[in-house]
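User: Can you predict the 3D structure for this chain?
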Amino acid sequence: MKIAVSAGYWSAGPPPGAADLFQAAERLGLDQVWTAEAYGSDAWTPLAWWGSRTSRVHLGTAVSQLSARPPVTLAMTAMTMDHLTQGRVLLGIGTSNPQVVEGWYGQPYPRPLERTREYIDIVRQVIARQQPVSYDGQHYQLPLPAARGGTGLGKPLRSILHPYRTEIPIYLGAEGPRNVALAAEIADGWNTIFFSPAMNDFYATALAEGFARPGARHSRDTFDVVGGPLAIIVDDDPERAADLVRPTLALYIGGMGARGLNFHYEVFARMGYEAQARAIQDFYLAGDSKSAIAAVPTKLVEDVALVGPWAKIADEIQRWKQTVLTTFSVNCDPRYLEKVVALVRALPGQVSADAAELGGGAAERELVVLGRDEVAVHRVGHVDAQTAVHVDRGVRHPVARVGGPELGRGHRGPGGFALAPGSQQPGGLPHGEPDRLDVDVGVGQPLRHRLE
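Assistant: Here is the predicted structure, written as structure tokens:
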């Protein structure tokens, strides 16, 4: 399972810690970082600004609002960013809602699925650069015909810029079953919101419908579903943790949309909370946000978020890993990011032992992540870019980055360190005398744990 993080929406200013989040994603070997937009800051500028300090992680918009830019403009932006990032752009698109589309952008909202299909068609044509772009749809026409108010002088054009990639992955932000099916049919991935393991079968059915349509681009095996808990709140008191999530849920269920046309409300109604959602919306639209927040049940919070002690979170996260999600989106206090990533990466059977170590105290402060291509080696200090941890019978040990079975007796490993002779684990990994570790001068990274 891949792992993503999101810098989220701006309010009055940039979200605190966003730059650090990009750097942490790069350092921890995460797969994706996403930015968002509503009706204030845009998604692309911070993606470029903070993303310029990365070199490996993929950079995406979740979402770039469809009505904010003509399809050709979005294609130009994505192509430019794809060159600057050397092919790391993920193009997330979404329709938003009527209040934003018509109130902020002054664009018509009706028939959003049809508009999305046409929009993505044009974006793909521009990026592919196979021929001058022309399109005659219900919502978009290129060139603009005289009958639509044009001069009649427009002609089909082909991008001056050659694409870094002739196809940039397109992700569709979707909530309802028809939009999810559309994503499975015409997109390369789906950006979820308010995903719940309890609704996994519902979403799996919608995705399957899209994959089965003629001309679908993907199957379940190649399609990326990005999502995760709305929040991960670590607290010994689950109710207190849930209190931090209730205001967001009350806002989306009660205030992000009109009565009778609120897609977020509909998500929770389908989840079995229609009566509670109606009460939340009634309070919110009446101007009583405090009562709306109080009306959000803890069970509803726990369906879309992970709240409570570490042991509870470590147990419940397994349900999320057994869903249609292929990229786990982590949304938590930055202090816990490495630990949550470790839970997501843990193989079945490893989580319970590791979770017991997450309870607190000095051991918690020492916890860092086992990165990609790293193998746990008993009691060996790490001299490369990132320290990791191996938990063995409740005892915490640093581990070293190792490259494979060639690291046998006395062989030199990557990063310039030599492992002393000793008995070996299966595959040639050192095990017998790991406390004897010879480190060359100039390795470049200080030891973060004392060698034992």
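The domain at 2-232 is CATH 3.20.20.30 (TIM Barrel). The two ends are 33 Å apart (CA to CA).
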